[in-house]
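Why does residue order matter? Because the sequence determines the fold. Keep that principle in mind as you read this record.
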Amino acid sequence: MKIDNINEFIGYYSKIKKRTQRLFDYIPEDKLEWTFREGKFTIGDQIRHLANIERFMYAETVQHKESKYAGCGIEYADGLENVIEYYNKKHLESLRVFESLSNEDLFKKCKTPGTIEITIWKWLRAMVEHEIHHRAQVYLYLSILEIKTPPMFGLSSEEVIINSKT
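Structure:
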C-alpha cells in the first residue's frame, strides 16, 4: 500500500485504531497486568507500548526529531480505565502531528531510531503494521485466558465456514 494522501491515510488509520480500541472492552481489569511469562509484555504493557511508540517514536521521527520512546511500564498509566485513556490521549497527540504533514511530506525521508533513512509514507505504513501486530498479541493473550473476543470483521472463522459454499 502506497500512501500519497495524508487525509486518506488518517481516515484509514482511524479505522485500524478503532479495531484496536474495540478490543479494550473485553479486557478484565484483573487481567490488565497479566502476562504469559515473566519478563514479557503484559496486556497493559501492550496498550501502553502502542500509545508510546506511536507518539514518541513514529510521531517524533516524521517531524525529523529523534525518538523519545522510553518504554511502556505501569508508571505511564495504571488501571484499565487510565490505560485506555492514556492510549487515546497519546493517539490524539500523534494525530495532530500526522495532520500537520502535507502530501509532499510523505515523500520526504525521516530517520528511524536505528539511523536508517526511510520515506515517511513507508514509515507510516510500518506504524500500521506495528499496531496490528500488537493488537494480535492482545487477542492471543485474551484467547489464552479463555476470554471471548469480538470477531475482527463481523464473523468468526467458524461462522465464515458455516456461511461458505463448498
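The radius of gyration is 17 Å.
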